[in-house]
User: Fold this.
Amino acid sequence: MRLSDEPGVVVEVTIPAPPHRVWELVTDISTSPRFSPELQRTEWLQGADRPAVGAHFAGHNARPDGYRWQTVNRITEFTPNRRFAWSVLPDVATVQGDEFACWHYELTPDGAGTRLRHGMRIGNLRTPVHALVEAHPEQEEAILDTRLASLRNGIEAVLRGIAADATRA
Assistant:
C-alpha cells in the first residue's frame, strides 16, 4: 500500500435502531467528539448552524502524544437518512477535489435496524503522514498501517458510541 493510492478505512455495523434515529446522531457534528479518541470538539463556521452541502465546520483534534491540530471541513454530500460526507481542508477557500481526507457515513435500512458504514480516505494534500513517509520511504507501508489502524480504532469507538446512543430509550 502506498500513500499515493489514497488509502482509507471503512467500518460497518448494524444498529438495532431506525435510520432516522441513527441519521440524527451522525449528522450532529457534536456526536463524534464524544466518542473519538482524536476528534476533541467541533464547531460550525461561517454562520452555518446545521449540515448542508457547502457548509463548513471546524474540527479540533489531539493525539495522546500531545500533537494538536485544527481542520476545516466542507460538507460535500447530504442525502437525508442515506449519506453524509465531508472533506477535510486547509481552509474554506480550498478548491473542491483538494483535501487532506474525505470522511463519510452511509446508512441502509436493515430489517428493524440500520446498517451504518463510517469511513475515510486519505486525500491528495500533504499531511504529517506524508512528511513521515518522505523522511522514511522504506517504512511507508508500516507508517500507513499504523495510521490506518489508529483511524480504524477511532471509527470503531465512534460507531460503538453511536450504537449505544441510538438504542438508548
In short: The radius of gyration is 16 Å. The CA atoms of residues 14 and 110 lie 8 Å apart. The first strand starts at residue 8 and ends at 15.
